[in-house]
Write a structure and sequence with these properties.
globular; oxidoreductase activity, acting on the CH-CH group of donors, NAD or NADP as acceptor; 2 domains; ADH_N_2; Quinone Oxidoreductase, Chain A, domain 1; Rossmann fold; binds NADPH dihydro-nicotinamide-adenine-dinucleotide phosphate; oxidoreductase; alpha/beta; seven-stranded mixed beta sheet; ER
């Protein structure tokens, strides 16, 4: 917690192509942990003394940018701040008026209609090319990405096994429609996954959607059907200490001809944005995809919310409300 500081900054005048924004919602995401490392990655590291950038929903107070007017609700990448000046480099995006008029809460664009829902949709349908009838295993299934994977897969008539820590989370995954659950805190993941497959009368998994790495990934290797596809989305198990991951069943990639692909949401999102909004918007409108939110209040609560991700303190999407 001592690594975070709250700073008051003077209000700057607006230049051309800038907006003054008051934030309402901040996104809190595990990928932010990776940006705290000084290591080569797909995106730049956070800089000491600079604000944490990331997804936020705010209201335009003053606009010097074409296409934006006071009162507009926007998604932007300005991150953890009460508000301030947002330029084009923060990718401001006006929330679609029809979605808002239809009653969609604006913060949905931080989860199911945004980063986490998009990651679930891209990873499952494009990267893993999952199809009806496939048996899908997803880890961190009670989290933001994982719960979207469960529901998209069920809407596409797949058989879903979700893993999460604890009875309350597992009960929620079942409510979302998962056919079987693994409580990884109650015993070895491999035993839980094997028991889930037995209960479903399935020989193995066709798809693994990895949010966790480590023991979950190893269990997925052990239980993979021939030609299984693994969408490697995240490995939260090692974000904090980077301990070596022991794989006992990696060799199964060869006889089972497993295809594994790591992916980054932003590489693909702009290609399929319209299709994603139409499909996900429809799934949300029909009630096939829902979301729980774990909400902390006030900017000063953001570090606590962030640390909570690594302790499993969230069900659904972790957010800060301002
Ligand atoms: P979640 O809402 O899933 O929150 C993180 C969850 O991870 C916690 O609730 C916790 O649930 C679980 N967790 C934490 N530590 C461990 C551990 N050691 N072992 C097993 N589970 C653990 O976060 P998101 O949905 O935002 O992100 C999920 C994953 O997707 C992350 O790995 C993230 O980095 C990745 N991601 C990747 C993107 C990409 O473009 N590739 C984009 C967005 C996210 P529990 O109580 O069940 O342990």
């Amino acid at each position: 917690m001592d690594d975070f500081a709250l700073r008051e900054l003077p209000e700057a005048p607006l230049a051309r192509d800038q907006l003054r924004v008051r934030n309402h919602w901040l996104s809190v995401d595990p990928y932010m942990r990776g940006r705290m490392n000084d290591a080569k990655s797909y995106t730049a590291s956070f800089q000491l003394g600079q604000p944490m950038t990331g997804g936020a929903i705010g209201e335009v107070i003053e606009s010097h940018m074409d296409g934006f007017a006071p009162g507009d609700l926007i998604l932007h990448m300005g991150g953890w701040r009460d508000g301030g000046v947002i330029g084009l480099d923060m990718s401001p995006f006006k929330l679609p008026a029809d979605s808002l008029a239809g009653g969609m809460p604006p913060q949905t664009f931080l989860h199911n209609m945004g980063l986490t829902g998009g990651t679930a949709w891209i990873g499952l349908l494009r990267v893993a090319a999952a199809k009806a009838g496939d048996t899908v295993f997803v880890s961190a299934a009670a989290g933001a990405v994982g719960s979207a994977v469960v529901q998209i897969a069920k809407a596409r008539e797949m058989i879903v096994i979700g893993s999460a820590g604890g009875a309350e989370k597992c009960a929620w995954i079942s409510e979302l429609g998962a056919d079987a659950v693994v409580d990884y805190k109650a015993g070895p993941v491999l035993d839980g996954l094997a028991a889930a497959l037995d209960s479903l009368g399935k020989p193995g998994i066709d798809i693994y959607f990895d949010n966790v790495g480590g023991e979950h990934l190893d269990a997925a290797f052990a239980c993979a059907n021939d030609f299984a596809r693994f969408a490697i989305c995240g490995m939260i198990d090692v974000y904090n200490d980077g301990h070596p991951q022991q794989m006992h069943h990696l060799i199964r990639t060869i006889p089972a001809r497993i295809r594994m692909e790591g992916f980054i949401y932003t590489d693909q999102f702009f290609d399929c944005m319209e299709e994603f909004y139409a499909d996900m918007g429809g799934l949300i409108a029909s009630g096939a995809v829902t979301m729980r939110e774990t909400v902390h209040h006030g900017l000063e609560a953001a570090p606590d919310a962030f640390l909570g991700l690594f302790a499993g303190a969230n069900i659904g999407k972790m957010l800060v409300r301002l």
